Amino acid sequence: MNLHDYKLIFISVGLIGVLLIATPALSNLIRGPNQEPFSELYILGPEHMASNYPFNIALGQNYSVYVDVGNYLGSSASYVLYLKLLNQTDTLPNATMGLPSPLPPVCEYRFIVQDNQTHESRLNFSFPEVSINRNQSLINKMIINNEIININKSSILETNKTTYGSLCFCPYQLSVELWIYNSKSNSIEYNNRSVHLLLNITSSLFSS
Asked: 181 forms bridges with which residues in the sheet?
C-alpha cells in the first residue's frame, strides 16, 4: 500500500480497558499454605483503580495505564513484559495451549520481583501519526514511555451502527504478555499470562 495515498486526519481513539486478572485465584492475593505458586498480571487505570480506563483518546495526546505483576512463586523471579499491537486478524495468546501471540513485540520491559511482592510499570502512550484511506486505517507511529516506535500496523474499518452510529470502528489490541526466566533452561518462557486493551480508532469524517 502506498502511504502517500493516506491523508492524516484528526481522530479520536477509544480505548476500552479489558481487565483480565490472570491469576488462578482472584480472591487470594497472598499465597495460602495449600495454594499452588503463581504469578499474576493485571492492568489498572490512571487512578490505580480497575476503572476509568482512557477512552476517546485524541490524536497525539498522552494517556496512562498501569501494568502490575505479582510474584507468589515462593522465590524471587525475573520477568519480561512484551507489548504487542494486534489488529482483528492477528492471533491472540492461547491460554488453553499456553502459547503467546506469534507477533513480535513493539517493546519490552525487564525486572525482578521478590516473593510476595508486586512490580508496577506505568505505560504512557500516544498515537502521533494515524492515517486513514477509504476503509483502511494505518497506525504509523506510537509513543510508549517517550519512546517513538514505528508501527505501520493496518486494520480494516468496520461499521457498528448499534454502538457507534455511523462512525467507523477500527479494532486494535495492545496485548501485554508476561514472560519469566527459567534458570534450568536458561531461557525466557511465556508464563501464560496476558492482558489486553481494545483500541478503537473512530471518526465521523473520512477523506479519501
From this structure: 188
Instruction: Read off the DSSP letter of residue 29.
Output: S
Please spell the DSSP secondary structure of 100-146, one letter per residue. Answer: --SSPPSEEEEEEE-TTEEEEEEEEEEEEEEEEETTEEEEEEEEETT
Instruction: Output phi, psi for 161, to 5 deg.
Output: -70, -25
pLDDT at 33: 59
SS3 34: coil
Distance between CA 86 and CA 99 in Å, rounded?
15
Q: Which pLDDT score is estimated for 23?
A: 36
DSSP label at residue 4: G
**pLDDT value at 2 more than 80:** no
Determine whether 86 is exposed, middle or buried from the number of CB atoms within 10 Å of its CB (0-12, 13-18, 19+): buried
Q: Which residue has the higher pLDDT, 15 or 66?
A: 66
Alpha carbons within 13 angstroms on the beta-carbon side of residue 174 total: 29
What is the rounded distance in angstroms from the CA atom of residue 7 to the CA atom of residue 179? 38
Q: Is the pLDDT of residue 98 over 80?
A: yes
Compute the average pLDDT of residues 158-179. Answer: 67
Pairwise CA distance, residues 142 & 201, whole Å: 13
For the chain, how long is the longest CA-to-CA vector? Answer: 62
Q: How many other C-beta atoms can be found within 10 angstroms of the C-beta atom of residue 92?
A: 15
Domain ranges of the chain: 3-201
Section 44-69 average pLDDT: 86
In this prediction, residue 59 carries a pLDDT of 77
The rounded distance, in Å, linking the Cα atoms of 113 and 81 is 13
